[in-house]
Structures are given as C-alpha cells and as structure tokens.
Amino acid sequence: MRIVSFKSKNFFLAVFAVAIAAISISAQAFGVDVHALVAQHAETLTSMSMLAVGSVDLLNKSLDKIEQGQTEIMVTQRELADRVQQLEQKSSVFPPDLGDAKPGADIGAMVVKAGNLDGLRNGSVKSVRVALKSLSMKAALTNATVPGVADREGEIFTALPRPISVRDLLMSRPTSAASIEYLGSTRGGAAAIQVAEGDQKAELELTLDLQTAPVRTIAVWVPASRQVLDDNRDLADFINLELRDALRLEEDAQLLKGPGTGSTISGLWTNAVAYSRAQVGDTPGDTLRRAITQVQLARGVPSGIVLNPVGLEDLELEKDTEGRYLVSLTVTDGNSRAITWRVPVVVTDAISADEFLVGDFSRAARLYDRQEAVVEISKEHADFFTRNLVAILAEERLALAVMRPNMLVKGTFAA
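Predicted structure:
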C-alpha cells in the first residue's frame, strides 16, 4: 500500500511557495533585489513548476500500477494456496517412482519447493508450473479404470461334435445309383425229423419282398463375404467344421428316427421291433439286459446301444436302498464309447431321454454313401456375384436299407 499520497497538486505548489518565500528572505538579508531576481528568472521558475507538477502526476501513476500489481500478486498467491490445498486433500497415494514422497507427505511443501514462487511474488514471472510425476489425483489405478490390452486368440471356439454317432454302428459301402433295391424275406415252418421212410418231410415257406431305399440328400449352407474369408484365415476352417457338424447331427436324426415319408430316410427306430420282455419292477439296467436278450433270441449279436446322455446318466447312477451302485460300467472301449452289459453305447440327442435302441446293427441294416460329405464354395447364387458374396455349402447323399428289422429292439424305460 502507498505510504504518502501525492494526489493533490496544491500540496506541492504550497511547498514551492514556501521555498520562494524563504529564498526572498535570504536575498533581502544579503541586500539583493528579490523582485528583480524573480523577474529575471520568471521563465525558469515557471518551467520548474510545470516539471514538478508533471513529476507528481508520473509518480502517482507509477504508484497506482505498483499497487495494482501487488493486488494481482496477492490474488495469485491466494489462488495458488487454494490449489495446493486441493492437491493435499486429493492426494493420499503415491507411486513408488515419486522420489522420496511417502503416503501422507506434504504436497503443498513440495509445490512451494519446486515452483518459482518468489518470481511470482515480485512480478518477474506470471505463472508457476509444477510437475508431480505419476501422481494419482482421485483414486488408485486398477484394471477397472485402466483396462489392459487383450491378447486375441486366433482360434474360434464353439460346441464340439461328439466323436461317435449312429453312422459308426453301421456297415457302409459306396454306391453310384440313385436308389438301393434289396430283397427282404420272411419264412414260415421249420425243419423236422422224418418220422418214417417215405413220409412227407417238413417244408419251409420263404416269402421274398423287393424293397427300395432311395438316396436322400442332406445339405446346409451359409453366406459369407469374400473379404471376411480373405481377412480371417481361420474362419474358413471354422465354417467348414460347423457345416460338417450340422450335417452329422441331421444325419443322426434321419438314420435313427427318419419317418420314411416324402424325401426323408426310413430310420432304424422306424423299422425296429418293440421291446416285449418287460418285467414288473425292472430298473433301466434290467430293461437293457432283457432287450439284449431279445436281440439274441432273434439270432442277432448285439453290437450297440443307443441312448440319450440323460438316459446313460440314469443308468450309471442306479443305486440300491443302501446307496450302492447297482451296475459297474466300463468307462470306455477303444473307440471312446461307454460299455454296459458288454455292449458299446452310442450317445446322441436324436433319441429321447427315456428311450433306448438295442440291436445287431452290422447285420440288421446297411448304409450306402452316394456322395460323402463335401463342402463347396460358389458365388453363383442370386446376386452374390455383384455383392461380392459367396455361398458355402455342405452336402451329402446317402441311403439306408434295413434288411433285418427284428434284430433291432426299441423301447422306453419304465418311470
């Protein structure tokens, strides 16, 4: 703040007049003519008076600017003090690379020490910049606030196909025809001992029936752009596997339960004979064992059991009243199949949870491959050429002939 005020020009003129009076008294004491002296130097005195007044104005302006600068410095100091206080309030955790800083250290003291606050006070600098290295202003850094960069796995994951299917139970052979014809036969009578020489011997009645198994087509396709196949090297293989698995699922459903109507396959379940050896109180294990016997009574050698995953679970978890397992099953055979009652089990969703199919599959039926599963890519579909799209098609053609349906036994587990 200003110590002495020079805002009044009259004050200076009064002082100047006093000085003139003093000079006059001194001049009279020495016998000098004061009026002549003043007249002689009137112009000089006037210039001095104007110079004094201008000096007062200049001094007043300088003091005003100094006072304004001091006020701005004080405001800046207060703002800086507020910011330092905010830093102290917000900062409680320091990374290890912040020098000697410890949790709870005085941030304000660090800012004062690092910054040129003296220069700010005397006006030589207008601002002060303080670098607080790696300082967390709000909270600790975590993966939630600073997510890391993911490592992209190139493989595409999806549901895996089952290694064993209904096809694996059947004998298969290739064909180049559009349908398969085969003779089914039934017989009546039986051989017998000739009672006496000359007597009529036993006669066997054979009935032959010509049957036809047409070749059916199973197919599935998916559209894709040429760019996405070019830019994703694993996508083509992924689509290939997915299409083949979709074919196999439908193949399982047709080979097992195809109704044989329209363009469908007449499946194993459709042709099988019903289970007929049920006993009161039978467990699922009992039912399967008796079904195996029924196949054997039809002169078959049981080569497989078809179950739903839930049905196999129920079978393996059977317990007596004391909690002991009723049947000990071999976990797998050489083809990764479960074994129950010495017969391999094929697990598939094509059969219901409470159903089973037991049979001599190698002799009861035969699978004919007209065209094994292939995957083709073509742009010759609708407007795919102009849209730069391709159609990826998976297709197979096959026929199923069931020659000995009595060697296949189907049934449902008792509730």
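Summary: Confidence is low (pLDDT under 50) at residues 1-7, 91-101.
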